[in-house]
Amino acid sequence: MVLTLLKAKPERKLAKQICKVVLDHFEKQYSKELGDAWNTVRDILTSPSCWQYAVLLNRFNYPFELEKDLHLKGYHSLFQGSLPYYPKSMKCYLSRTPHRMPSERHQTGNLKKYYLLNAASLLPVLALELRDGEKVLDLCAAPGGKSLALLQCAYPGYLHCNEYDSLRLRWLRQTLESFIPQPLVNVIKVSELDGREMGDAQPETFDKVLVDAPCSNDRSWLFSSDSQKAACRISQRRNLPLLQMELLRSAIKALRPGGLLVYSTCTLSKAENQDVISEVLNSYSNIMPVDIKEMARTCSRDFTFAPTGQECGLLVIPDKGKAWGPMYVAKLKKSWTT
Q: What Gene Ontology terms describe where this protein resides (cellular component) (predicted)?
C-alpha cells in the first residue's frame, strides 16, 4: 500500500505522479474485465486524496483513549454485521472520509498501539478462521500486516511467517517486533525460504495456510516513478500467474488434509485471481472450493464487490466513500481423499 503518497499536495501535483504506461495498460485490460465499474475504480486509484486508511488496534498494547477519540471523530467499527467468524479481540476502525492517522514510529522495547491498513486486507485473514492452538503458515508474509491481524484473532500454537525477499523480510521482522510481546514471539518462526519450496520442506504440517501472493500491485504500480521500470514490469506481468500457481502448489503440499487455504492478491487482474484459482481446482481432485458469498453479503456496508463468477472468490473494488481494495480473496479446503 502506498502510504507515503497521501500528503497535503494539490490534486494537480499528484496527478503528475501517475505513470501513463501503467494506466494505459490497465485501461485496456480492466475496462474489458470490469466494464463500467472501471471508470469509478480508475478515478479512485489515481486520486490518493480519496484513499482511506483503517486503524487496526493492537490488543497487546490496547489504546483505550485512542478508541474513544476515534468514536468522537466519527470512526465506526468494521464488520458490524454478523460475520460467521469475527473474533471480539480484533478491533478495526474506519472513517467514511479519507482522514489518515499519523503512523507511529518504531521504538525498540515499546509496542505500537495501532496499525494503518487497507481495510480489505483483513478479509483474507478473517476467511482463514484461525482458532487458538492451530498451526498456521503465512507464506508471503511481508510487510507483516496480515500476520499481525492473525494474531489479533487468536493465539496460534505455531505461526510460520515466510518471506523470500530479504529487504521485505527486514520490514516483516520490524513489524512483528513493533506489535507482538516477547512471550508470543516464541510461537512465531520467521524464515527466508523460496515459498515454492515450503511444501517439500514442511509437508502436511499446517492447519491453515495464507498465500498473499506477489502480484501486480495496482495501487503502487500506477505511481511508478520510473517509466522504463514500469514498462519492464508490465512486460513481465504475464509471468506472475505461473509464480502464483507454483506458490499455491507448495502451499497445498504444506497443508494438512482437512485444512483451509486462503489465496489473496491486491490486483484486479482476472489472470492472477479467478484464472489461477480455476486452474488449481481443475488440477487437484482433493482441493475443494469453500463458499464465501456470505462474507460479501455481510460486508456490503463497508465494501463494494465485483462479480467473480466464483462462489469461493471475492473481489473488492474501490468505490466512492468505500475506497478499499483492490483485494481478491479465495478460500479452499484440502479434503482427506486424494
A: mitochondrial large ribosomal subunit
**144 known member of a binding site:** yes
36 belongs to a structural domain: yes
Q: Each residue of 159-178: pLDDT tens digit?
A: 999 999 999 999 999 999 99
| Strand residues in 81-235 grouped as ranges (E) | 92-94, 114-117, 135-138, 158-162, 188-191, 206-212
DSSP state of 225: S
Q: Look at residue 1 and tell me if it is in a domain.
A: no
Residue 266 annotated among the catalytic residues of the structure: yes
Which of 153, 266, 299, 312 is an active site residue?
A: 266
pLDDT of residue 291: 97
* Residue 212 annotated as binding site: yes
Residue 332 CA to residue 96 CA, distance in Å, equals: 32
Q: Which domain holds residue 56?
A: 23-95+106-334
Residue 110: partners with Cβ closer than 8 Å, 6 or more residues away:
none
Q: Report whether 258 belongs to an annotated binding site.
A: no
